[in-house]
Amino acid sequence: MAQFVFETDLHGLLKLDTPIPNAPPARWQRKAKESGDPGPSPAAIVSPMKPINRSHSSSKTPSRTPGKSGSKIQNTPTKAGGDRYIPNRSTMQMDMANFLLTKENDPAEESPTKKEQQKAWAVNLNGFDIEEAKILRLSGKPQNAPEGYQNNLKVLYSQKMTPGSSRKNGRYISSMPDRILDAPEIRNDYYLNLIDWSSQNFLAVALDNSVYLWNHTTGEIIQLLQMEHPDDYISSVSWIKEGNYLAVGTSNAEVQLWDIQQQKRLRNMTSHSSRVGSLSWNSYILSSGARTGHIHHHDVRVAEHHVATLAGHTQEVCGLKWSLDGRYLASGGNDNLVNIWPCTQGDSGDFAPVQTFTQHQGAVKAVAWCPWQSNVLATGGGTSDRHIRIWNVCSGTCLSAVDAHSQVCSILWSTNYKEFISGHGFAQNQLVIWKYPTMAKVTELRGHTARVLNLTMSPDGATVASAAADETLRLWRCFEMDPIKKKEKEKANSAKSSIIHQGIR
What we know:
Layout (H helix, E strand, L loop, with lengths): L5 E3 L5 E3 L9 H10 L58 H12 L6 H15 L52 E4 L12 E3 L4 E6 L2 E6 L5 E6 L7 E6 L5 E6 L3 E6 L4 E7 L5 E7 L2 E6 L3 E6 L6 E6 L5 E6 L5 E6 L4 E5 L12 E3 L6 E6 L6 E6 L5 E6 L4 E7 L4 E6 L5 E6 L6 E5 L5 E5 L6 E6 L6 E5 L3 E5 L6 H22 L1
Antiparallel strand pairs: 1-2, 3-30, 4-5, 5-6, 6-7, 8-9, 9-10, 10-11, 12-13, 13-14, 14-15, 16-17, 17-18, 18-19, 20-21, 21-22, 22-23, 24-25, 25-26, 26-27, 28-29, 29-30
């Protein structure tokens, strides 16, 4: 840096004068000492803290150093690489600098309209106002970047982590059941479907020759029915979508229809010749699968209820489920087949499956339709197969398959997450939650000491009930939603229902 000398004028004021000649460079001083030359005298080196009398001449010729003869003049070294830089004032734009300094102190000349226009341009180009998003500041805590701001230049400390690089914390899933209920005398039969949860929050459980209803809201238990003959037993139960009627299949080939509010049997439909192990509703059509391998459609509104027969299995139908849109019926049997049936008859007047899947090597009891993809079906095989397969029923292709390493007894899709849960038998007797479509395991729920027979889900989709051969029912809160997302979902559903009501009016 250049050294400057302050001089005293006639009024005793200090003012900045031109730079004094440079002192010899440090390297020159070192060389002089090595050669024995004492170098310049101390008087030749001017201290910046001491005023010196100099003439007010405007000449640029270096002044004489006091205490030296007139022949010796100290000039600024011309050798490149000196220690200090002395600016040349003749090349400086002093007028321009003075103008800029005075302009900073003047009030802003920009009109409010021009400021608003510049702000609008900034918002359109960057997505936010730059003046409100300055990161570097002279004082105070630096601000965070605006939400969603992405810097393509990857400047350090100018933005938060991108959404892709930030790790999302997984939700907490309790490994313990929320509640355990006794289920004495539940039949340990792989081919039966003994529990179902209604939209009105009633859990129906078939215990040998009786059906009990458990009110999840109040905890009240009601015995709905009991078979007259002690050798007969309940082989399947299924709620209608509205939750006010319960269909019951029995070992003596009957299909009964019960009114829950009046606790009264409305109909007793007989068309099968063997036990009815599976039931599924599609509006007013009730489909029932029997041990003979036949599936019957019942129109519960008319006296002649038996309206169609589906003959596509050679052994007992143990899995039966209508798709949510009512277009297809999926059936799984002890013959290792999965059939996809249409909702309407063909040109010949007979029902024929539109797809038949033969990849399973064991009985297929677990069948479940994806709630957000109407043409996607999940199926699970028995002990000799142990695989879960995902199908596209329109193209007939297997989208994915995973080895569950144990008997697959039941599958349920979550309505709150892109996941599904499976219940298993030998050897772990556990429940497994799977991520879809990656088929990665989310967690395993253990607690049953015998194979899981059936699974069913609460109306809000948060709780799964599992019935097992250890004569217990366990309730797992494995799909509980975040409160904020739950409110958003309820708001969306209410808006959807209001639109439907407006359309009906």
